[in-house]
Specification:
Chain lengths: ~110, ~850
């Protein structure tokens, strides 16, 4: 804590569905309206570290065969990863609240 | 194409994610259309690979370092051993390299140093003689090969300023010497041609250290007047701190001046000369020109210059062959220690890698790649080497000053310390060391990695032979034997020198020097009055047996040589007809313990009213009147005819290792006023039954009573003088001996390690053998057989190496045969003993193996 930006985005990208690397990049880009485009190096380096830290895991289950690309590895968030992501979201929310109290934030427009 | 970029990533990362990254990239490239989009894509990919590739490497490194430090913390004893052994090797090599850099590699800190040459006179049998003033001036005027030529002569003086009088070393230098070397004073002015004229006011330049210590580093010290040997001199400048010339202790320089008497005598040699070749003039051309010039002078002055030629040598090469050899020997020794340290470490880590085989095998089967394991093991060994290196560099820093005492003081080497290049060297050898002792175990671990899990616990049936580790041990033994032999040779050479009779009895003699400054003491009468008061006072002290003054003590001053003429004897110009000349007072011979072989010594009655007498050494009598009685014969020396009244034993004036000119002793009372005052006796020798140094205070008081302004210096025992003559050898022997001892110890540890390991590997085998009826004697011979095979191979190789090294350093051995059998026998016996001692514990363990337990472990 605080989580690196890329890590948080990856956690959000795999929160609902298991995804493979390229899908994560696309998902992140969609969610941020193209503001954040993860480079492959950053992505896989983050994935490697997150695997070690136990935030995500590789899945043995495969999605429906017609969608499956066999040669790809899919990643899924772990319960620890979920907890970490929640804690991070809480921390950020807290921060925004403080910022709003100081008159920095746009408020509930 | 993109795969090439992926090479920037660690290979484990590449293996894991490379495929997917390639596929992602391919998809993006298909989407990109047009040249511009492609270029942007590529640029982004390249930037990404560089940034994240490095970061991934860093991640791994960090992970490995954490893993390694965890390992180190878990086995601190092992880590400490490795670090210490590495520190020994790296420290020794770094310290020696620091000194070697100065002695062998660095250019001299002078202007165009590569063209500077040293000029000597040469006669048959003597290639490096000092020059006489007229010959030096003739050479300088005639030679066209040189831009400049300048002379100097060493000088030692008593300085009276504020505080006690002190003795300071320095040099008389020609005015153009310092500009020729390219050294400007740090403050004040240098010497000019005017300062060189005989009779000009006295001027002097201070060394930086002297200026700070005696003049408080004050700017206004320049212009101050000080008394040097009683003469007033004005301080005109201060030299820069790193300047030391002609030797490291020199702190005072004054202009070289020639009195008319100096210019008259071509045989009065005391000048050293340096010249700089013109650009484009080779050393050989300069030599050729000097041959022509000296040949012409020889025909012009056949009597004095008959056989005189010139020696021209690069100043850089003037580092004595001996010290060059010594530094090479030290480098060799330190490299040996480093190699032994490395082999030992490799052995230690190999043993540990084997014991960690299971762990590594588990990790490998869990998917850790081979590269990943090697990388991690290397990180660990580099980390250990790094710690060792840091420790070693710190140790080297403390060790360098000791090594510097081995190097002749004539080498300009202000403050050799560990600087950038040495540090670079140290880092390089640290990395090399880490790789050297890390690579083998790492590769081995990989090779065995897969098989590690397969069988139960027994690695290799019947005790696998360890050819690699055995080779390492043989290498260790042979290197340490070579070191033992070379240091043994040096120690033997030292003993040999100690056995040489210097020609006097050194025990129980105190010596000191008084200054007797001119003009107060330039005449004989005040000098004799001074001697009389001091000697009668000293002789009355309890325990004192005899006391006497001499011009110069042997070994302390080695020169003081004068030409000899014997009436009626023809002198071949090729022969050297000089003798070491000393004026002495009565009592000098018994005080020094120099035996009188014939006739009498110098007596009180030998004064100006009596006929001039001389006592000569046996070698002198032998040279001119072989087989005859020399008493009553006369010869000419120091502008007078002397009659021999006594023959004394030979003294090694030039030290234990060199041959000395024959000696001539004259009576101090028969000197002439204001004439060769330099030779006036100043050195006092006192023989007593009491401990010599217990007399120092009483003798100081007596001299103070005789003349309160008389500085006293160089208080030392005769034994100290003789020992200072062999001091550098003792340090040599000690340093090499230390290297040998370290190597020896490391090798013993290595052998012990190997055998304990092999015994523990063969426990089952031994158990089975015992169960099948093998006697413990057979087990004993099994294990000892292995260790003695290693020992014999190592000792044989080492003896060969040692002989080679001994031959290479023959110039350090004072005539000792490099194949000295006693040294070889001792070294080899020591090595065999060490091997056996190292195998003692493992052998005992092997014999105690309980067959039941060992076999049950199956």
């Amino acid at each position: 804590m605080p989580l690196p930006e890329a890590t948080f985005h990856i956690l959000m990208a795999v929160a609902e569905d298991d995804r493979h690397g390229y899908a994560i990049i696309q998902e992140v880009a969609t969610r941020t309206d193209g503001m954040l485009k993860l480079s492959p190096g950053t992505l896989y380096r983050s994935i490697q570290r997150m695997l070690e830290q136990g935030l995500i895991q590789e899945t043995a289950e495969r999605p429906a065969p017609e969608l499956d690309d066999e040669r790809r590895r899919y990643y899924r968030i772990t319960s620890f990863g979920r907890a970490v992501a929640k804690a991070e979201a809480r921390r950020l929310a807290q921060l925004v609240k403080l910022a709003r109290a100081s008159g920095f934030a746009p408020g509930r427009a | 194409m993109y795969r090439l970029l992926l090479l920037l990533y660690p290979s484990s990362f590449r293996a894991e994610y490379g495929e997917e990254m390639c596929r992602d990239f391919a998809r993006k490239r298909r989407q990109a259309s047009g040249f511009f989009a492609l270029a942007v894509l590529w640029a982004a990919a390249i930037g990404d690979a560089i940034r994240n590739g490095l970061a991934a490497h860093w991640d791994l490194l960090w992970q490995d370092v954490r893993y390694a430090s965890r390992k180190i913390r878990r086995a601190p004893g092992f880590a400490a051993t490795v670090v210490l052994v590495a520190a020994l090797g790296i420290g020794a090599t770094t310290a020696v390299f620091t000194v070697a850099d100065y002695v062998l590699a660095r250019p001299l800190p002078y202007l165009h140093a590569e063209r500077l040459v040293r000029m000597w006179g040469a006669r048959p049998g003597y290639s490096q003689l000092e020059l006489s003033p007229p010959n030096y001036l003739d050479w300088r005027a005639a030679a066209t090969s040189f831009e400049a030529m300048a002379a100097y002569s060493p000088w030692s003086t008593s300085m009276v300023g504020k505080g006690d009088p002190i003795q300071v070393e320095g040099a008389n230098v020609a005015a153009d010497l310092l500009p020729m070397l390219g050294i400007a004073p740090a403050m004040g002015r240098g010497f000019t041609a005017y300062d060189e004229r005989s009779g000009a006011p006295g001027v002097v330049m201070l060394g930086y250290g002297l200026w700070e210590s005696r003049f408080g580093g004050r700017m206004d010290a320049i212009g101050e007047k000080i008394l040097l040997d009683g003469d007033p001199h004005t301080i005109i400048g201060v030299m820069p701190p790193e300047f030391s010339f002609p030797q490291r202790r020199a702190q005072l320089w004054r202009p070289l001046r020639f009195a008319p008497a100096d210019l008259a005598d071509r045989r009065n040699i005391y000048l050293s000369a340096i010249a700089r070749r013109k650009p484009g003039v080779s050393l050989e051309q300069a030599r050729e020109e000097m041959r022509v010039i000296t040949a012409r002078l020889a025909t012009q002055y056949p009597k004095e210059n008959g056989a005189l030629s010139a020696t021209v040598a690069n100043l850089r090469d003037q580092v004595l062959v001996q010290s060059r050899t010594l530094v090479m020997a030290l480098l060799g020794a330190s490299v040996c220690v480093l190699l032994i340290a490395c082999t030992n470490l490799a052995n230690l880590l190999l043993a540990r890698a084997l014991s960690r085989q299971k762990e590594l095998a588990v990790r490998a089967s869990l998917g850790a790649g081979r590269e990943r394991l090697v990388r991690q093991l290397l990180t660990e060994s580099l980390l250990l080497a790094g710690l060792g290196g840091a420790l070693g560099i710190a140790g080297a820093n403390a060790f360098v000053p000791l090594l510097v005492t081995l190097v002749p003081t004539s080498l300009p080497m202000a403050n050799p310390s560990i600087d950038g290049r040495v540090l670079l060297f140290a880092v390089a050898i640290t990395v090399a060391t880490g790789l050297a002792f890390g690579v083998l175990p790492a590769l081995r671990a990989c090779r065995d990695g897969a098989s590690g899990l397969r069988e139960g616990s027994r690695s290799g049936v019947g005790g696998r032979k360890e050819p690699l580790r055995s080779a390492l041990v043989v290498a260790e033994v042979s290197l340490s034997v070579a070191l033992l032999i070379t240091s043994g040779l040096l120690i033997r050479a030292l003993w040999r020198l100690h056995a040489i009779d210097p020609g006097f009895q050194q025990a129980g003699v105190l010596t000191l020097r008084t200054a007797l400054p001119a003009p107060k003491y330039e005449n004989v009468v005040p000098r004799e009055a001074f001697y009389q008061r001091v000697l009668s006072g000293v002789r009355a002290l309890p325990g004192v047996q005899s006391a006497g003054f001499t011009s110069f003590l042997p070994i302390v001053v080695r020169g003081g040589v004068w030409a000899v003429d014997v009436t009626g004897q023809h002198q071949e110009p090729s022969e050297n007809h000089t003798a070491s000349l000393r004026f002495i007072t009565p009592g000098y011979f018994p005080a020094m313990g120099i035996p009188l072989k014939q006739g009498r010594g110098v007596e009180e009655s030998d004064d100006t009213t009596a006929p001039p007498v001389a006592v000569v050494s046996e070698s002198f009598a032998q040279r001119y009147w072989p087989g005859q009685n020399a008493i009553g014969r006369s010869f000419q020396i120091a502008f007078g005819t002397r009659t021999i009244v006594g023959v004394a034993g030979n003294v090694r004036v030039r030290g234990l290792e060199a041959s000395s000119e024959p000696q001539v002793y004259l009576s101090s009372r028969q000197m002439r006023d204001r004439f060769i005052v330099w030779y006036a006796p100043k050195d006092l020798a006192v023989r007593s039954t009491a401990h010599p140094t217990s007399l120092t205070a009483a003798i100081r008081a007596i001299i103070h009573d005789a003349d309160p302004q008389q500085p006293i210096s160089d208080v030392q025992t005769l034994t100290e003088i003789v020992e200072s003559n062999t001091a550098s050898r003792r340090v040599q022997a000690r340093v090499l001996g230390a290297f040998a001892a370290i190597a020896f110890l490391l090798a013993a540890v290595g052998i012990h390690g190997l055998l304990s390991f092999s015994v523990s590997q063969r426990t089952q085998e031994i158990g089975v053998r015992m169960a099948l009826g093998a006697k413990s004697g057979q087990i004993l011979s099994l294990i000892l057989g292995e260790s003695s095979r290693l020992a014999i191979a190592g000792v044989m190789l080492g003896a060969g190496l040692g002989y080679g090294a001994g031959r290479a350093m023959q110039s350090l051995l004072a005539g000792l045969d490099p194949g000295d059998s006693a040294t070889f026998a001792t070294a080899m016996a020591l090595a065999v003993t060490m091997t056996l001692a190292g195998s003692l514990i493992p052998t005992a363990r092997a014999v105690r193996v309980d067959p039941a337990v060992a076999v049950r472990a199956e």
